[in-house]
Write a structure and sequence with these properties.
The chain is mainly α. The chain folds into two domains: 161 residues, no CATH class; 155 residues. The chain is built from 13 helices and no strands. α10 packs antiparallel against α11. The protein is elongated. About 2% of the residues have low confidence.
Length: 350
């Protein structure tokens, strides 16, 4: 091995080790860094326009944008989290009462008496073991959800200091990303070990994917959840905030969509002979909630991600299991980068 090669390998080894150490140092703050970056990316177009209008007020604009972002995001988020925990516990108690008072069996009998069920000659709900299994599953599931909500509430109370500390870090980092975002981006672009054209293609893919997920999927989910929340509250659906949050989550996941939440509720209203409410939920659910998915997303996202829906579905589900809510944003980016790298590889090396 020549001396120059040895020095090169040694340098790369030292660099890799230092990068690993830096990653370990900043790992405890990864969540705060990630969400600060997401918030900055979401609102950066507004900041960029203000910066161009007032070029000599960079610090002031970054500071005001940071305050504006956290006034928009943090108070509603804390309000939703607190109320969500309460409503999940209420939903658990309601489900227990519903099963123990025999209302589940009454519902099954009502379903069996429906003409189209009788015509199908189904005996799915006929046997007592099936009813008992359904009751046990429902009680077990709601107990798990209730225990999780209670534990999260306890964790939130115990760690309230660290939660506010994380919010402070997010606030500070958001200011830094607004103020120095362009420099950080250029620095990463310059040190990326690829050819210039390759770097341009990869960074463009990352930008477009993040824009698609944040400004497309997230905005669509917020609009759908808002419409659903107003509708659920107006119709008197139990624990409306809980089901609204489910609408928000499911609308972020391809294939499942918001219909996986509002449709079963509409069927329940129909089976329990609340016909007017069921019809309203069917109509508004289809035209006012699910149809938004086909209007807003294509307008904002377009074909930017270029990912097959089934891959996006499994990717987001796997990403959520691996990273939690961060997986909703990370999974599409990883998948997009994979396909971008495959394309570059095929063009350059095959």
């Amino acid at each position: 091995m020549r001396r120059e090669q040895f020095i090169s390998f040694f340098f790369i080894g030292i660099l890799a080790f230092i990068i690993y150490e830096i990653f370990c140092i900043f790992a405890p703050f990864f969540t705060a860094i990630f969400w600060a970056a997401i918030l900055t990316f979401a609102f950066y177009p507004i900041y960029s326009k203000l910066q161009k209008t007032f070029p000599k007020r960079n610090n002031s604009i970054a500071f005001l944008m940071t305050i504006a972002v956290f006034l928009i995001v943090i108070p509603p988020l804390i309000f939703i989290l607190i109320n969500m925990t309460t409503q999940i516990i209420e939903f658990t108690q309601w489900t227990y009462s519903y099963v123990r008072e025999g209302k589940l069996e009454q519902l099954i009998e009502q379903i069996r008496k429906l003409p189209w069920i009788q015509n199908a000659q189904t005996h799915i709900f006929a046997s007592q073991p099936v009813k008992d299994s359904l009751s046990s599953w429902l009680l077990g599931t709601t107990k798990t959800i209730g225990n999780l909500a209670a534990s999260q509430a306890a964790t939130f109370t115990k760690n309230i200091f660290f939660i506010f500390l994380n919010i402070f870090f997010m606030c500070f980092l958001t200011f830094i990303f607004f103020k120095h975002g362009a420099k950080i981006y250029n620095f990463i672009f310059e040190i990326a070990p690829f050819e210039k054209e390759t770097k341009k293609a990869l960074f463009k893919q990352i930008d477009e994917t993040f824009a698609a997920v944040i400004r497309g999927q997230l905005l669509t989910s917020i609009v759908q959840a808002t419409v659903a929340g107003i509708l659920f509250t107006s119709l008197g659906v139990p624990v409306p905030l809980f089901f609204t949050f489910l609408i928000f989550l499911t609308s972020l996941i391809p294939v499942l969509g918001a219909a996986s939440v509002w449709f079963p509720i509409a069927v329940y209203l129909l089976v329990t002979q609340m016909f007017v409410k069921a019809i309203i939920l069917f109509v508004v659910g289809f035209f006012g909630i699910s149809l938004l998915d086909n209007i807003i997303k294509p307008a904002i996202i377009g074909e930017k991600t270029k990912l097959p829906y089934f891959l996006l579905f499994f990717g987001i589900m796997g990403g959520m299991k691996l990273y939690g809510l961060m997986g909703i944003f990370l999974a599409p980016v990883v998948l997009s980068l994979f396909f971008a790298l495959i394309k570059i590889y095929r063009e350059k090396y095959t």
